[in-house]
């Protein structure tokens, strides 16, 4: 199983530096949360790891593949739930799964697809276009798509945003499943409690940099909340 | 003496909210929309406005300063009433096909502001002229009035036509809102289709039986043309009465449109809901990555109510024009290009916005970027071919056998060359200038209105010039000239496509498109 190794990652959009020298690593079967305020650089880091945005400088290894040199190989390893939408508006969930299965060479995927849709309470919506989905439904579907092919690296960007408790449970279960089969999991969120529930370790990002890396257990309860707020400044 | 503000002071400091009238709200929205634009862009917009005004003046003045063929004036006089009504009809079609007209602010951004339906209506009216078809027709009407009127009393000749252009736009807008009210009611879509069918049939019958001009006169076209003529002939009583009638009609239409816009806004978007709640049966797996991508792209086009409606309108309209008019082979090479331009303007000029927020997910899939580009290109080619071939076939049948076989060849080559050119230009713009646009709603466009005007002008110019060139070749030269020119133009389009594909291969360029398009 693969791991993730990020060294001095810098991402610039024109004159704006979204990520400024972030380094961290996540091993197989481990889960790490990226915590931080809006605009801290969490989603940009996730997009780089997913092979969607190229790094401006620094090295990002997913498995043995450098994301700048071989993004296609990285995309084969990764399951990615983007922070916004993440669904083609006029395609159905089933068609999303079908496309993902085709491009990843999955055979006999239908049963796995049906199970996932059921687990995320979307089985009744499998053949309706996603444009009519609520925000929470879209989030759940995005997570289902990310875990569908049992990726070696699971990237979930704001997977709990606007999701109901059943969806949160399904997502936590999906993270646990991924870890148990040896996947490296990274969850980006601004919800500390859920980050603690999903991950073993948390990286607090601030202004495009990694301000601190701390065990998730240290961020539990009121003391953890105080520590988190102190880091956010 | 108190050193801190009291609760009464704080209360007094609370901003007072006061609802704005429709016009001040429109001005505020315009400032918001245009504010923050780079100076270069604002200068360009000012120059474009000056160019439009300048061309309007030229359209009025030039026909009175040049020697026109003797048979032109009676011909223009005969067809002017019909042209007056055609302007109204095309404005209605434009308003109806865009679900009531353009938005000043996209719906997802507008929710943050208290924008009333009257403001929305006035904004749609203001945006209506940002449309090449509207501008060209308006200039044609003004020029036609000047031709008929001659050199005497130019202002009085042209003024009724300018008033009619404004009034007809307002009437069309009111009709478009009215159609939206019907469309959003139970069985409304069917009712609208039936009305369109009846109207189309009536136009067809009137044309085929040679009664189109008579019908246009009977329906009021001669009143507008007559007012214009009265101005040139110094019949001031008739002129004044006609002008007042047009102004009253326009004012009533603005008022009625505001009422209808309010009614339409209160209705749930039924046609959109129907598409979004429909069950689409699963289909078997595809045999290749390309076909898998293509399937999703096709679904994105054909499951979008506004896109489907736009394609159908664009396919049917030229057919009606072809059946209505006395088409000649000299003009046919221009038509498929104009239809193809219209189809490209539905989404092709910002092709990646089809995926909207799903772009991020699609970009994370393990597939070569060129496969995604090829699928998007092909779905555009399909749409252009379907509409282009339909136009070509109907026009050819209507025109009868060509005088020279070279004309047929030139027409076919022109259609192919222009379609490929339009695809190449559209893809280049899509990759270089992406916009975050949600095509979910009927009133959405793939780029901001000003940009759309620029795109439509460039596409129409390219397709018209190319079509006319092939028309001339078909009439006068051997077939090898058309084939040679076609090969040359196809080669330039191929170069453009290859350049776009190379740019799409660049992960940084792709990331810019992905980030922009998904940032809705």
Distance between the termini of chain A: 37 Å
Principal-axes geometry of chain A comes out as globular
Could you tell me the number of beta strands of chain A?
10
What order do the helices and strands of chain A follow?
EEEHEEHEHHHEHEHEEH
> How would a crystallographer describe the biggest sheet of chain B?
none
Question: What form of chain B results from the Cα inertia axes?
Answer: globular
Give unreliable regions of chain A as ranges.
none
Strand content of chain B: under 5%
Order of helices and strands of chain B: HHHHHHHHHHHHHHHHHHHHH
How many domains is the backbone of chain A divided into?
A: 1
Give the CATH superfamily of chain A: P-loop containing nucleotide triphosphate hydrolases
Structure class of chain B: mainly alpha
The major pleated sheet of chain A works out as: 6 strands, mixed
Number of domains of chain B: 2
Distance between the termini of chain B: 53 Å
Oligomer: heterodimer
Please report the number of helical segments of chain B: 21
Mean pLDDT of chain A: 92
Radius of gyration of chain B: 25 Å
Would you give an account of this structure?
The complex is a heterodimer of chains A (233) and B (520). With 233 residues, chain A is an alpha/beta fold. Chain A has one domain (4-82, 148-232): P-loop containing nucleotide triphosphate hydrolases (Rossmann fold, 3-Layer(aba) Sandwich), CATH 3.40.50. In chain A, 36% of the residues lie in helices and 27% in strands. In chain A, the strands form two sheets. A six-stranded mixed β-sheet of chain A has the order 6-7-8-3-9-10, sandwiched between helices. A four-stranded antiparallel β-sheet of chain A has the order 2-1-4-5, covered by helices on one side. The longest helix of chain A is centred in the C-terminal third of the chain and has 16 residues, at 165-180. Chain B has 520 residues and is an all-alpha fold. At the A-B interface, α2 and α3 of A face α12, α13, α16 and α21 of B.
């Amino acid at each position: 199983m693969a791991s993730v190794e990020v060294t001095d990652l810098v991402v610039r959009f024109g004159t704006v530096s979204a990520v400024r020298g972030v380094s961290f690593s996540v091993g197989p079967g481990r889960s790490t949360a990226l915590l931080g305020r809006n605009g801290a650089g969490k989603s940009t880091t996730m997009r780089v790891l997913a092979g969607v945005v190229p790094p401006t400088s620094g090295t990002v290894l997913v498995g043995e593949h450098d994301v700048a040199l071989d993004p296609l190989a990285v995309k084969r390893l990764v399951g990615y739930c983007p922070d916004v939408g993440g669904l083609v508006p006029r395609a159905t969930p089933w068609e999303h799964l079908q496309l993902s299965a085709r491009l990843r060479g999955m055979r006999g995927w239908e049963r796995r697809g049906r199970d996932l849709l059921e687990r995320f309470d979307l089985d009744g919506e499998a053949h309706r276009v996603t444009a009519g989905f609520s925000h929470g439904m879209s989030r759940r579907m995005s997570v289902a798509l990310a875990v569908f092919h049992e990726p070696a690296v699971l990237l979930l960007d704001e997977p709990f945003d606007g999701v109901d408790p059943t969806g949160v449970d399904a997502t936590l279960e999906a993270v646990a499943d991924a870890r148990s089969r040896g996947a490296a999991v990274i969850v980006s969120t601004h919800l500390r409690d859920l980050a603690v529930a999903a991950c073993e370790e948390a990286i607090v990002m601030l202004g495009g940099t990694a301000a601190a890396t701390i065990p998730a257990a240290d961020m539990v309860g009121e003391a953890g909340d105080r520590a988190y707020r102190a880091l956010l400044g | 003496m108190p050193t801190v503000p009291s609760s009464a002071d704080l209360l007094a400091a609370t901003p007072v909210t006061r609802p704005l009238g429709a016009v001040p709200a429109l001005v505020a929205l315009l400032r918001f929309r245009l504010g923050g634009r780079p100076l270069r862009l604002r200068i360009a917009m000012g120059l474009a406005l000056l160019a439009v005004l300048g061309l309007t003046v030229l359209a009025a003045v030039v026909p009175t300063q040049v020697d026109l063929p003797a048979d032109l004036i009676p011909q223009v006089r005969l067809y002017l009433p019909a042209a007056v009504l055609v302007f109204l009809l095309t404005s209605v079609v434009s308003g109806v096909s865009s679900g009531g007209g353009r938005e000043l602010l996209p719906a997802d951004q507008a929710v943050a502001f208290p924008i009333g339906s009257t403001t929305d209506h006035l904004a749609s009216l203001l945006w209506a002229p940002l449309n090449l078809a509207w501008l060209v027709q308006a200039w044609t009407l003004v020029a036609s009035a000047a031709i008929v009127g001659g050199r005497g009393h130019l202002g009085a000749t042209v003024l009724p036509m300018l008033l009619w252009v404004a009034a007809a736009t307002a009437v069309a807008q009111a009709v478009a809102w009215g159609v939206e009210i019907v469309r959003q009611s139970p069985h409304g879509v069917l009712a609208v289709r039936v009305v369109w069918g009846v109207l189309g049939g009536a136009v067809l019958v009137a044309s085929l039986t040679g009664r189109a001009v008579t019908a246009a006169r009977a329906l009021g076209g001669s009143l507008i043309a007559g007012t214009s003529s009265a101005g040139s002939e110094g019949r001031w009583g008739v002129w004044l009465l006609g002008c007042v009638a047009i102004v009253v009609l326009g004012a009533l239409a603005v008022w009625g449109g505001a009422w209808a816009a309010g009614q339409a806004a209160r209705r749930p978007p039924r046609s959109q809901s129907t598409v979004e709640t429909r069950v689409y049966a699963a289909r078997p797996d595809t045999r290749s990555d390309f076909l898998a991508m293509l399937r999703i792209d096709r679904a994105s086009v054909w499951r979008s109510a506004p896109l489907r409606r736009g394609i159908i309108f664009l396919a049917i309209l030229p057919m009606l024009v072809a059946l209505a008019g006395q088409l000649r082979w000299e003009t046919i090479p221009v038509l498929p290009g104009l239809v193809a331009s219209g189809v490209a303007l539905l989404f092709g000029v910002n092709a990646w916005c089809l995926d909207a927020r799903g772009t991020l997910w699609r970009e994370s899939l393990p597939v070569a970027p060129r496969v995604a580009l090829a699928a998007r290109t092909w779905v555009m080619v399909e749409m252009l071919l379907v509409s282009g071939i339909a136009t070509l076939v109907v026009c050819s049948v209507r025109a009868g056998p060509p005088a020279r076989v070279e004309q047929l060849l030139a027409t076919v080559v022109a259609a192919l060359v222009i379609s490929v050119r339009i695809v190449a230009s559209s893809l280049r713009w899509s990759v270089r200038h992406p916009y975050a646009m949600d095509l979910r709603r009927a009133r959405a466009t793939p780029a901001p209105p000003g940009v759309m005007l620029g795109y439509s002008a460039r596409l129409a110019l390219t397709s018209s010039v190319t079509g006319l060139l092939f028309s001339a070749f078909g009439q006068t030269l051997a077939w090898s000239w058309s084939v040679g020119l076609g090969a040359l133009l196809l080669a330039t389009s191929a170069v453009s496509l290859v350049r776009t594909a190379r740019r799409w291969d660049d992960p940084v360029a792709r990331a810019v498109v992905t980030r922009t398009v998904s940032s809705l």
